[in-house]
């Protein structure tokens, strides 16, 4: 796909592009973010500070960024995909050596006044790089071992760097998101079947060897796995979040206690109530009705992302949009499952709702790229 | 795969015959082939997308189902059927002399059944007058909400409040019995007891569950219906605990320390007589766990059990004991103490230069780093590691507190000769004060392993013998000499024959890498009476500073030792020890040494 190829087709240009945006998606994203502002306002005890106001500013910035990115032709994003990937890997390396430590992990990079979390940026650059890679790659070679290996390498480098920080949650999203994009690109089933069987076999071997002579891990490592899988073993540590979150959600019931009436989360039973565990506040105050409404909004967002994927005729556009959808899905799926005790606790924010700058901006950039694919989709001449 | 050829010979020949250019046939076929490939790729991509959409859908359904489940499981009014099963009974906790450390008090919770209310508006207003912190308007809204049948008003009522609520005369306001866990001694032994809170709540009762300390560790036993009338007896002695807490906290205040801990243990059974960590808290009103800052700075942190620190020179005794036990030296063997000692790029030096040689006894009495490091060099890393492992220093000490689960010593990654030398004088290996007390119990009790316990267990013995009776006697003599004429002279309490070892360890920087100048963890660990030790005591002070002199003094000799001395001076009479003349003690020590030789 080249610059020329784009212009041959009929393509909206200039301000006319505004008409061709995926508008439902813009509305949905704004709606979810507004729910986020409400919850941050409530968690702070009815105050715009310290969380709601900065979050709104970031959202405004993110929205502007999204429009700016959407107006730039898709071929431009394709051509800088490799560069963006390289820069994000360099930034991750920078964190490794010069990063600042916060909450026991090295995640942030101080660049003058900006505090950047390169692991968040990597989420979108990996998707871009994979989309560009498969766009460039000859279709016939998609399932060739060498080219599959290269694609895995693109995913593995940033994932391992993030894992070293250590940030299990982000690494999980990054790795899983990348693998799902590779799956969508049409790599043969066999690889995935082998990977799943092999992984399952490894896990089985490790757990089965426990207590035998050929035990593969040390005892304390097994105990850590136990506590990770079943936090109730360790109710003062990891289990504390979950039990409190479940109590909060249970006390919300169907209709909830009412906006700003939540007790469990306001009384400081829950750490990280404004970030990873904000969903509990929502569920307690707005009940099942509020929580399921948020879920419906998320479903609709994913739906409109898939709509864009189906409309995109180029491989880059389709894979990029699909990658954005996958990343977004993983974000809230992991977060909600973790809060409701379906998954062990790993630090993943609730997208567009949790307080946090890097995550919000990166998601808006991702939606901007998807919008660009939507605006610049090839159209059949009328 | 059979493909249509790009240049089918027959068609080209036909085209030639017709006089046409055959090239377009190839172009046409190429286009068809590429289109076919695109179509398969597209079909494949769409099928993959379909699979993914299926996965998304499954995810949505899963989350939605869990949401509904959570919203439905805990209805607003607890169902009557379930409340019968909730038991709020919990056995008492006593000290070793049968005095109460934790017991239960009956109070009442207040709730409303709105269907039975006569005048909900008035009830809400009057409740607002009785409880100033209740939002009466909100209560009124809840009482009059047709969808609500049940409202919790308050978890605990005082008797006066209960009478006042009775006087409203509202039949819809009901009382549910509650058992409240109370700790009559307030902050005393807070870290051992931990605390309790309500678990599952019903209208008529609420579970009381232990959240930390022995309350958590023995939670099942304390709630076991068969054992309810049998209180849990701890090994702690409330009187001793109180005296130790008082002396330690005034010492901490006078020396401006950030925190302090003390452990007193019976070296012949491992029973812990007192275990204090300061600053402390009131278990009746246990503060929530901190969400920011260092967990180790929290009042909930049990320094004696969870705090693994590099404790410095107190570890020297283990090096010397191993050397004695291996027959490498006797208390009188001269050890090379030329300071500084160069090991590769690393330099080991003493607090002051003790001359070219010291006897093994004086290495302990004067606390020579160089002398101890030389001994460690002779012992060797492997043998040192094995010895410390046997004493339990590599694995963390088990005791009946929930907090010990995750507390583990920090070991060197590579147990090199250099780390063996630094470990010999207490750097490079972290140890908790409780573990240290257990280790010293082994040194002085004749060489038998000791596992600490907080449960009163009459007749409990010691473990396997790891050093000889002779080594133990020699160690008792040396540790006594440290107090008689060495670094711990302030612990010399006439008549009680205190012995022990000091340790002043520079605190490692929190950011990692290097040690703070002028921030010290001061420790004294010892036993008394030294001719036949009945109690082992370990006292640590975090960043103490004695400013009474011309310049600040931070070493253990000026901080932890005088505090320990004061503790022993006050508790020895309470522990039924009689002061004895110095000559009698000296004679007993000499006899023991002679018997050991």
Describe this structure in words.
The complex is a heterodimer of chains A (382) and B (597). Chain A is mostly helical and 382 residues long. Chain A has helices at 3-8, 23-43, 52-71, 74-98, 118-136, 145-163, 168-184, 189-208, 219-229, 238-252, 278-311, 315-339, 357-375, and strands spanning 100-102, 105-111, 114-116. In chain A, strands 1-2-3 form a 3-stranded antiparallel β-sheet, with helices on one face. Chain B folds into 2 domains: 93-233, Penicillin-binding protein 2a (Domain 2) (Alpha-Beta Complex); 245-283 and 300-596, DD-peptidase/beta-lactamase superfamily (Beta-lactamase), CATH 3.40.710. Chain B has helices spanning 9-17, 23-73, 80-83, 120-130, 136-144, 159-168, 190-193, 213-217, 219-223, 238-254, 316-325, 360-366, 369-379, 381-390, 417-424, 433-444, 469-485, 560-574, 582-596, and strands at 93-94, 100-113, 150-157, 173-182, 195-201, 206-212, 232-233, 259-265, 272-278, 334-336, 341-343, 346-348, 357-359, 499-508, 515-528, 535-542. In chain B, the strands form 5 sheets. In chain B, strands 1, 2, 3, 4 and 7 form a 5-stranded mixed β-sheet that branches. A 5-stranded antiparallel β-sheet of chain B has the order 9-8-16-15-14, with helices on both faces. In chain B, helix 4 (120-130) runs antiparallel to helix 6, helix 10 (238-254) packs antiparallel against helix 18 (560-574) and helix 11 (316-325) crosses helix 17 (469-485). The radius of gyration of chain B is 36 Å and the shape is flat. Chain B: Residues 86-223 form the Penicillin-binding protein dimerisation domain. Chain B: It is found in: Membrane. Chain B: Residues 261-550 form the Penicillin-binding protein transpeptidase domain. Chain B: InterPro entries: Beta-lactam/transpept, Beta-lactam/transpept-like, PBP_dimer, PBP_dimer_sf, PCN-bd_Tpept.
């Amino acid at each position: 796909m080249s610059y020329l190829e784009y212009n041959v087709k009929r393509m909206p240009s200039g301000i006319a592009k505004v008409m061709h945006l995926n508008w439902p998606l813009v509305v949905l994203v704004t709606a979810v973010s507004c729910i986020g502002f409400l919850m941050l306002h409530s968690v702070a005890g009815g105050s715009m500070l310290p969380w709601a106001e900065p979050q709104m500013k970031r959202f405004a910035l993110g929205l502007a960024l999204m429009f700016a990115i959407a107006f730039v032709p898709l071929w431009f994003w394709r051509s800088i995909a490799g560069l963006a990937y390289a820069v994000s890997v360099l930034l991750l390396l920078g964190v490794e050596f010069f990063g600042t430590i916060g909450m026991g992990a090295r995640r942030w990079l101080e660049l003058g006044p900006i505090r950047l979390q390169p692991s968040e940026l990597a989420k979108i650059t990996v998707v871009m790089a994979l989309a560009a890679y498969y766009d460039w790659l000859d279709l016939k070679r998609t399932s060739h071992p060498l080219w599959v290996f290269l694609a895995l390498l693109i995913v593995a480098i940033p994932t391992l760097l993030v894992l070293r920080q250590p940030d299990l949650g982000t690494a999980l999203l990054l790795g899983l998101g990348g693998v799902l994009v590779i799956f969508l690109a049409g790599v043969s089933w066999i690889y995935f079947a082998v990977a799943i069987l092999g992984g399952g076999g490894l896990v089985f071997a490790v757990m089965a060897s426990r207590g035998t002579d050929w035990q593969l891990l040390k005892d304390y490592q097994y105990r850590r796995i136990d506590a990770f899988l079943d936090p109730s073993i360790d109710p003062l540590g990891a289990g504390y979040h979950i039990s409190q979150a479940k109590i909060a959600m249970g006390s919300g019931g169907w209709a909830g206690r009412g906006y700003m009436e939540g007790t469990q989360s306001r009384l400081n039973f829950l750490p990280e109530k404004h970030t990873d565990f904000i969903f509990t506040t929502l569920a307690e105050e707005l009940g099942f009705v509020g929580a399921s409404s948020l879920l419906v909004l998320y479903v609709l967002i994913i739906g409109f992302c898939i709509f864009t994927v189906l409309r995109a005729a180029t491989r880059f556009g389709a894979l990029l949009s699909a990658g954005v959808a996958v990343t977004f899905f993983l974000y809230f799926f992991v977060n909600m499952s973790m809060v409701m005790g379906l998954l062990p606790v790993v630090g993943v924010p609730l997208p567009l709702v949790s307080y946090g700058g890097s995550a919000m901006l990166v998601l808006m950039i991702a939606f901007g790229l998807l919008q660009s694919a939507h605006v610049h989709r090839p159209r059949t001449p009328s | 795969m059979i493909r249509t050829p790009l240049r089918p010979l027959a068609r080209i020949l036909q085209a030639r015959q017709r006089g046409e250019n055959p090239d377009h046939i190839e172009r046409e076929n190429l286009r068809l082939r590429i289109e076919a490939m695109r179509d398969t790729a597209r079909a494949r991509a769409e099928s993959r997308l379909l699979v993914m959409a299926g996965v998304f859908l499954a995810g949505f359904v899963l989350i939605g189902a869990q949401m509904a489940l959570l919203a439905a499981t805990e209805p607003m009014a607890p169902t009557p059927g379930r409340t019968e099963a909730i038991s709020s009974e919990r056995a008492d906790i006593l000290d070793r002399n049968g005095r109460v450390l934790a017991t239960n008090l009956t109070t009442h919770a207040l709730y409303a059944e709105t269907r039975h209310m006569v005048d909900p508006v008035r009830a809400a207003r009057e409740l607002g007058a009785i409880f100033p912190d209740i939002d009466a308007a909100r209560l009124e809204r809840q009482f009059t909400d047709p969808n609500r049948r049940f409202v919790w008003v308050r978890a605990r009522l005082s008797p006066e409040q209960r009478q006042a609520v009775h006087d409203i005369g509202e039949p819809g306001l009901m009382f549910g019995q509650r058992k409240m866990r109370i700790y009559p001694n307030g902050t005393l032994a807070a870290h051992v007891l931990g605390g309790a809170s309500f678990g599952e709540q019903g209208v008529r009762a609420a579970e009381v569950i232990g959240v930390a300390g022995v309350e958590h560790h023995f939670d099942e036993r304390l709630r076991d219906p068969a054992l309810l009338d049998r209180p849990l007896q701890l090994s702690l002695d409330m009187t001793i605990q109180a005296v130790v807490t008082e002396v330690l906290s005034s010492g901490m205040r006078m020396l401006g320390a950030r925190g302090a801990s003390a452990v007193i243990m019976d070296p012949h059974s491992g029973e812990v007589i007192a275990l204090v960590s300061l600053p402390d808290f009131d278990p009746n009103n246990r503060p929530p766990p901190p969400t920011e800052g260092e967990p180790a700075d929290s009042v909930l942190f049990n320094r004696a059990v969870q705090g693994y620190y590099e404790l410095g020179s107190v570890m020297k005794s283990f090096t010397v004991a191993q050397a004695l036990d291996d027959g490498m030296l006797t208390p009188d063997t001269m050890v090379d103490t030329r300071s500084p000692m160069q090991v590769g790029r690393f330099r080991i030096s003493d607090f002051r230069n003790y001359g070219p040689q010291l006897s093994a006894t004086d290495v302990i009495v004067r606390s020579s780093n160089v002398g101890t490091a030389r001994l460690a060099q002779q012992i060797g890393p492997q043998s040192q590691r094995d010895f410390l492992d046997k004493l339990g220093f590599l694995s963390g000490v088990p005791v009946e507190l929930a907090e010990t689960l995750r507390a583990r010593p920090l070991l060197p990654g590579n147990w090199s000769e250099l780390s063996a030398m630094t470990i010999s004088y207490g750097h490079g290996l972290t140890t908790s004060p409780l573990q240290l007390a257990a280790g010293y119990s082994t040194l002085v009790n004749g060489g038998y392993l000791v596992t600490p316990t907080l449960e009163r267990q009459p007749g409990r013995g010691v473990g396997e013998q790891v050093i000889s009776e002779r080594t133990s006697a020699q160690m008792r003599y040396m540790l006594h000499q440290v107090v008689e004429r060495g670094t711990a002279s302030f612990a010399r309490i006439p008549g009680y024959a205190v012995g022990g070892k000091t340790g002043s360890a520079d605190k490692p920087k929190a950011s990692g890498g290097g040690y703070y100048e002028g921030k010290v963890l001061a420790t004294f660990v010892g036993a008394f009476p030294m001719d036949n030790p009945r109690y082992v005591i370990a006292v640590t002070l975090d960043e103490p500073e004695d400013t009474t002199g011309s310049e600040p003094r931070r070493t253990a000799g000026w901080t932890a030792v005088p505090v320990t001395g004061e503790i022993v001076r006050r508790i020895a009479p309470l522990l039924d020890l009689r002061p004895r003349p110095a000559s009698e003690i000296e004679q007993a020590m000499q006899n023991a040494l002679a018997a050991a030789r």
